[in-house]
Amino acid sequence: MRQMHLVGFLQAQNCTNLASSWRHPESRTDFLRADYYQEIGRILEAGKFDLAFFDDRLSMPDRFGSDHHHTIEHGIRCVKLDPVVVLTMMAAATRRLGLGSTASTTYFEPYHVARCFQTLDLMSDGRAAWNIVTSLNDGEAANMGHAEMMAHDARYDRADEFVEVVLGHWDAWEDDALIVDKASGRFGDGNKVHRLDYKGRFLQSRGPFTVPRSPQGRPVMIQAGSSGRGKKFSARWAELVFVAYHDIASGRRDYDAFKAMIAATGRDPASVKVATLCNPICAATRAEAEDRAALIEKLPLEIDALSLLSEALNFDFASKGMDEPFSDEEMASIQGLQAIRDRVVEATGKKNPTVRDFITGSGRGRPKMDMVGGPKEVADKLEAWFEGGACDGFVISATHVPGTYAEFVQFIVPELQRRGLFRKDYTGPTLRDHLGLQRAVRGDWQMQHAAQ
């Protein structure tokens, strides 16, 4: 029986992706300590989650009013730790939970990313995953020494080369290249470690790579591009894709269309898992969950939405009045998360929405309140999405930490297991085992793309 996949959506920062989560009375506030993240890891592993995944940005939101003071004052994603370092601490506190982190193809070097994630994969016995992002706002560009963000499609063109370099390095060592025989004095077989010598339009990298292969061959690759170019990139490279579908009907259409894109690249659509974002608010009973939701709904502030919209769309929302429409030129100039802009236009039916329309139409800074209930109610909704052909699993977002994860594991996971929709135990030690993926074989990605 087909089983759903579950991902814990995390941030190595003072809040979750919901900026107001730190204000929740039950949220832990020791987010600068390893145990904060290790407890989350232990909870997710007890719930047999596939992996814990860290989103990341390389700047704090400071586009609104061209100033960071409001970000600090209101705790709007202002503390951002290095997620890979945090993952190593979580790895030490878990044995089976997958460990995924974001790393930018625009601002990092492919050799560094390859070494970092392959090392994490070895240190965790084959549980690592790399979330491939191209980065999206000018704040990140400024922090990383660039005058401005690269054009959208050019970032993905460069990212294609970046992934080729990373995969090439991950394929450098054959599985039996290491010998480590003290008696003969032979450490390894030099003929089984290969130099890359990559030269592309954007990137070049020589090698040989310095990290041998891991128990799962190489880290799992994650992607979440939502634009047309982003989806094309995902279809070519990703093994796990994160989406934010809005309802089952449109989700099913997008899911089917994306799986068709994967098939068109010569890859097996079943080898790419699609998980949609959800914000469950659950408790032992529906009444208790509704009480929790009422509290959570009061936490977000208007400044949260204005700050996060400015960051995501690379446009200073302080420059316009709340009820002032965006001009055609302003709408066309948005270069960040264009999917947000398109969603607002669709939701409001306005070609030129106002600032207030962007707040209400995007839902930025507020959790969706469409999955509130006890075990039966929440499991019914998850099952409807999953059995309705709209996804292969779910990315569980938190309204407070660690309570959201603990409540989901306590109340929802057992109900999903009772229905036969979710595993009762891990079937193997590696993340590829959890996702139902074969161990990565050297050169398999080249063979897949040769068929295009």
UniProtKB/TrEMBL annotation:
Keyword Flavoprotein among record annotations: yes
Protein's recorded name: FMN-dependent oxidoreductase, nitrilotriacetate monooxygenase family
UniProt keyword annotations, A-Z: Flavoprotein, FMN, Monooxygenase, Oxidoreductase
Domain Luciferase-like: 32-390
Binding residue positions for FMN: D56, T102, H152, Y156, S226, S227
Family membership: Belongs to the NtaA/SnaA/DszA monooxygenase family.
InterPro entries: Diverse_substr_monoxygenases, Luciferase-like_dom, Luciferase-like_sf, NTA_MOA
A Pfam family assignment: Bac_luciferase
An example Gene Ontology molecular-function term: oxidoreductase activity, acting on paired donors, with incorporation or reduction of molecular oxygen
NCBIfam families reported for this sequence: FMN_nitrolo
